[in-house]
Design brief:
With 396 residues, this protein is α/β, with parallel strands linked by helices. 28% of the residues lie in helices and 16% in strands. The strands form three sheets. Strands 1, 2, 3, 6, 12 and 13 form a six-stranded mixed beta sheet that branches. Strands 9-8-10-7-11 form a five-stranded mixed beta sheet, with helices on one face. Helix 4 crosses helix 5. It is globular, with a radius of gyration of 20 Å. It starts with 52 loop residues before the first strand and ends with a helix.
Length: 396
């Protein structure tokens, strides 16, 4: 989650009632996006000698070496096993990461779907030979070869963790579990002032997803590929919703507080938030509505000008290994990328890890660009820079 701020996300640690760190998370705000075609870069054919070092750019919580918490360290084992010493830098938004990648100096980047196509189209990342990454084979098939990590059949990285943006509701307000996003859109007036929504331009996709199911005449087939008419419809829906919004949230701790106090009774959430609320004894539950949901799947990518490509490949392989992936995704609060990681986690069921049917209902964040990602060539889609402008108008 999130520059698109799906994540001005600081680490989304797996939280317990006893330990909730004051962390401000997610805000996917973005500057403009490119709409060109990906610059072709030949993938590495074979690995050579390790360079002894690798520089990684990532979300907070993805590359932990024990310096923040001695019990949280999956970097030391990598350095010991490979001889590749890590230097890492964290970023707060996808836009910041884009600017840093433009400046150069990084071998590897962990990129969300709102960033990946910008990096690919800009020529800032190279094609990846997955045959050189043994652990790639174990990654869930439903995360592979997707429009946010693969272009024209060429892989530009490997999946990391994933999750859905769910519907959270107060069980004392709702006698029965809601089954549709209609409760925050067409029926929002019933909960006026107590509806909450994710504070990011990418939330426009949530409205488009609802319209895709309820207004089929609009012809929406992908919530990230909106022509002008489709985009305008989504924006109008959100402007109507705005009247009933109590608060837009990007800090998950504030959403937890709002649901515990009753200031919010229904809105978007993450599974990790419901886990905390449940542990705190709150009267809440989270569901995946019948229309499906938006969500995220992050990708480890290698810079096109990487100076330490061999160590970069070794990192991609290591972080996809069951134990390392389990540690990283559990610490962050998301589902792992492969079933064997669940051998090292006891909460995979809560995150629906590996449930292909569940995952098929998630529309993972993808950079909206002028070249429609749904494959249409007879129209131009609305670029993310226009999503950003519209979001400010929606909020007023």
């Amino acid at each position: 989650m999130h520059s698109m701020t799906r994540k001005s996300r600081m680490p989304r640690k797996v939280l317990t009632a006893a330990s909730v760190s004051a962390v401000t998370l997610l805000t996917l705000s973005a500057c403009g996006t490119s709409s060109g075609t990906a610059e072709s870069t030949a993938a590495l054919a074979s690995l050579g000698e390790s360079e002894g070092q690798v520089s990684i750019l990532a979300w907070p919580g993805y590359v932990e070496d024990g310096s923040n918490d001695p019990s949280v360290d999956w970097v030391t084992d990598f350095e010991t096993e490979t001889g590749c010493q890590i230097t890492s830098k964290t970023y707060g938004t996808s836009d910041e990461a884009y600017q840093l990648m433009q400046s150069g100096g990084y071998d590897v980047v962990a990129a969300s779907g709102d960033l990946t196509l910008r990096l690919i189209n800009g020529g800032y990342v190279q094609a990846v030979n997955t045959d050189l990454i043994p652990n790639y084979e174990n990654i869930y098939d439903f995360l592979k070869d997707k429009e946010w990590n693969t272009v024209d059949g060429v892989n530009y990285g490997i999946p990391h963790g994933y999750g859905a943006n769910l519907l959270l509701y107060n069980t004392e307000v709702f006698d029965e579990a809601p089954t549709s996003w209609s409760v925050v859109f067409d029926e929002a007036s019933e909960y006026a002032g107590k509806v909450t929504a994710y504070d990011s331009p990418i939330y426009i996709a949530d409205a488009a997803l609802y319209l895709m199911a309820t207004q089929p005449d609009l012809g929406i087939t992908n919530p990230y590929a909106l022509d002008q008419e489709q985009f305008d419809a989504a924006v109008e829906l959100l402007k109507s919703q705005n009247e009933y919004i109590g608060e837009y949230w990007s800090d998950y701790l504030k959403e937890i507080q709002a649901f515990e106090s009753g200031d919010s009774v229904v809105g978007t959430t993450w599974q990790v938030i419901q886990n905390v609320l449940e542990a705190d004894g709150a009267t809440t539950a989270a569901v995946l509505p019948e229309e499906g949901a938006t969500g995220w799947s992050d990708t480890w990518m290698i810079a096109s000008d990487a100076e330490n490509t061999n160590c970069a490949y070794q990192w991609l392989n290591y972080i996809a290994s069951p134990e390392a992936n389990a540690e990283a995704t559990a610490y962050f609060g998301e589902a792992p990328n492969n079933p064997e990681a669940c051998d090292y986690r006891d909460d995979c069921e809560a995150y629906n890890a590996g449930d292909a049917e569940y995952a098929s209902q998630i529309w993972y964040w993808t950079t909206p660009i002028a070249e429609c990602v749904d494959g249409r060539t007879d129209v131009e889609c609305v670029d993310y820079s226009e999503w950003t402008t519209a979001w400010q108008e929606i909020k007023g």
